[in-house]
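Ticket #4471: structure export looks truncated?
Reporter: QA, pipeline team
Priority: medium

Steps to reproduce: submit the single chain below to the structure queue and open the exported record.
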Amino acid sequence: MAIYNGSNSNNDNQNREIEFKLVEKLGVLDTHKSGWAREVNIVAWNGKPPKFDIRDWDPEHERMSRGITLHEREAVKLATILVQRLQMDEPQAQAQTQQMPQAQQESGEEYQEQLEANGTDGGLLF
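Actual output as written to the record:
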């Protein structure tokens, strides 16, 4: 278990210590010139159950940037959406991108219904 003191802010609420345990390293998305890396990991924060986690980490995994944590069901839904988007041909991708602002305002359930109406079933391929 490691402890991070996010003391780089003037906000007292953000100066509290954060406990984290890096449960499993899943992969590196990108490495920056500074040595920090954008990673996908499974991390337990403040003694809570582990979640999927995407954020930048320093090389020693002692400091991190803000990021996003996902429950397993959210990670599966994200993977489904990304696989569907990456499998589209160029005209489909452009049409879908033009619809994104409207889709971002809808709930995930409504967006899934929209995908299904457009001929995608939402199933995982891996």
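Status: closed, not a bug. The export was complete when the record was re-opened. Leaving a note from the reviewer for reference: The chain is about 35% helix and 30% strand.
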